[in-house]
């Protein structure tokens, strides 16, 4: 009896091994049949920037070159910024990556702040967007602040809570990091731009509201509308279908619009986004049109003009003031919750649609924040309390 059971067991094991071997062979055949994916080649000669022009590695810095900078020719430095201490927070060190094109002086260079979304690291965000390659071409620095897993398990920014223990502290940390980089490397303080994806776009909006004197323009990709969410639950509701209140009313409650210095904004969103509903993009466009003085308190057009065109699967709407484009909305047909024109191999990025990085820089390069622009901000909680 024992001998028969042994034979049965051995026979079953042989069949299992044979099935796995067959499956492996078939997988290898399919892989061989696929066309080889072209791999970008690094430049034959890469000029190395002079040591005095590059961030010097200290005790907390790392010069390890990740995939994010694999084919870019500049310098990638990981470091920590000691952010202002926030009440009730144990973590006040903001991790970040700084990318600087090679062969260029940092003095007078523009800076683009890139805020990642949930479940992303800064290496993945840099790799998926390919913003560093654009920095090489046009000569600007890029900084990637990184949310700590100790603050949020999925690295989400608390964009919906402007309190000093949540999103307000995160926005202040990013603003402090920008100030530190500008002072240390003598970057052009009038050409600082901030861009974000999803939750990163939410934090970028909060920065635009609370620190308009720091940034010359903002770019929001797949981001939520501003002003209504106060908790994780209400944030999910806004993401699913936009705000329940009028977008203009929410902006007026958040800041003194008459004293606000304006904030040029580029908004990019996929029409097939099932994580953050496209209605959010429409509401963001209205909110920034209000912040730039194009719309009045009722949401009616006060000055300027609005132009719209459809081309190559993208609906573009421009809000112009004095002949200058201050808000641009791009709705990308067929794009889900992913960075337009990005790397398909990286989660939350898609090759579908126009290159979002190129769109952003084309928008940013014509914007400049003059030194006399005074801040006009008020915490969102205070505004809500005024309404109550």
From TrEMBL:
GO terms for molecular function: hydrolase activity. Residues 33-46 have a biased composition (Low complexity). InterPro entries: AB_hydrolase_fold (IPR029058), Esterase_phb (IPR010126), Plant_Biomass_Hydrol_Est (IPR050955). Pfam families: Esterase_PHB. Residues 24-61 are annotated as: Disordered. It comes from the Bacteria. The keyword Signal applies. Residues 50-61 have a biased composition (Basic and acidic residues). The keyword Signal applies. Coiled coil: none annotated. One of its GO terms (cellular component) is extracellular region. Keywords: Hydrolase, Signal. PANTHER family: BLL1128 PROTEIN, UNNAMED PRODUCT-RELATED. NCBIfam families: esterase_phb. This is Esterase. It comes from Paraburkholderia saeva.
């Amino acid at each position: 009896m024992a001998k028969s059971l042994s034979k049965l067991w051995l026979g079953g094991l042989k069949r299992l091994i044979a099935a796995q071997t067959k499956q492996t062979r078939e997988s290898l055949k399919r892989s061989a049949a696929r066309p080889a994916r072209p791999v970008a080649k690094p430049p034959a000669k890469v000029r190395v920037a002079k040591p005095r022009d590059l961030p010097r590695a200290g005790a907390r810095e790392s010069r390890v070159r990740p995939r994010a900078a694999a084919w870019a020719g500049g310098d990638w430095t990981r470091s920590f910024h000691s952010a202002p201490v926030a009440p009730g927070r144990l973590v006040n060190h903001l991790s970040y990556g700084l990318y600087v094109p090679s062969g260029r002086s940092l003095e007078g260079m523009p800076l683009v702040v890139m805020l990642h979304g949930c479940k992303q690291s800064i290496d993945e965000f840099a790799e998926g967007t390919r913003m560093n390659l654009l920095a090489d071409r046009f000569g600007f620095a890029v900084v990637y602040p990184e949310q700590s897993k100790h603050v949020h398990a999925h690295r989400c920014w608390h964009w919906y809570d402007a309190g000093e223990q949540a999103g307000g502290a995160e926005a202040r940390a990013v603003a402090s990091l920008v100030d530190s980089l500008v002072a240390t490397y003598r970057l052009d303080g009038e050409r600082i731009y901030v861009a974000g994806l999803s939750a990163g776009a939410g934090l970028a909006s909060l920065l635009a509201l609370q620190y308009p004197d720091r940034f010359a323009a903002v770019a929001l990709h797949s981001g939520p509308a501003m002003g209504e969410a106060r908790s994780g639950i209400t944030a999910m509701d806004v993401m699913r279908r936009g705000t329940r209140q009028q977008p203009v009313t929410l902006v007026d409650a958040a800041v003194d619009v008459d004293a606000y210095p304006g904030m040029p904004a580029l908004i990019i969103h996929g029409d097939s986004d099932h994580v953050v509903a496209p209605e959010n993009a429409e509401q963001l466009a209205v909110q920034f049109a209000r912040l730039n003085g194009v719309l009045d308190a009722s949401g009616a057009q006060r000055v300027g003009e609005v132009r719209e065109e459809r081309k190559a699967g993208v609906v573009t709407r421009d809000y112009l003031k004095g002949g200058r484009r201050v808000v641009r909305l791009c709705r990308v047909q067929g794009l889900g919750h992913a960075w337009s024109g990005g790397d398909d191999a990286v989660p939350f990025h898609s090759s579908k649609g126009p290159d979002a990085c190129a769109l952003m820089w084309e928008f940013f390069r014509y914007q400049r924040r003059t030194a006399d622009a005074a801040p006009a901000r008020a915490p969102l909680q205070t505004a809500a309390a005024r309404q109550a």
